[in-house]
Amino acid sequence: MIKTNLKKTVNQALAAGLVLNVLSSTTPALSPLLAGNSLPSSTPETLVFSPAQTAPDATTTLSVTVTAYSSTVSQTDSTPFIAASGKHVYDGIIAANFLPFGTKVKIPALFGDKIFTVDDRMNRRYPDRVDVWFPTTSQAKHFGIKKTDIVIISS
Question: How much of the chain is in helix, strand and coil states, percent to nearest 5?
């Protein structure tokens, strides 16, 4: 009964354009229902529904914290050269949890007119940061952490 009700709730939420933030990775039966959403760990009974992830309007400017990372297991996961989108890392890839994959952004104060693409995700404890990929750990460390504006140019 619970599984049937849960499936119905999940389907209703998806039909209504909601993204599921499931607070459990201990319920493998949910995996086919959630089609690729990551499952953070917490209590298996708790579901939180949030509006579907959409990018702000084109040319929206946001003030964010910008950090840097490189392709090392200590900074990513066991596949450091594969981004969360499934693509290999490349110059111009960024990680951001609050923007959909494929969103194009500029970081003019730091990188001029260079266009970055969201193709990776950060640890969920950073819901409002942008993480710029660098080829080496020393470059990422040298970049540090900065507060600046990003300009969303397409979603």
Answer: 20, 30, 50
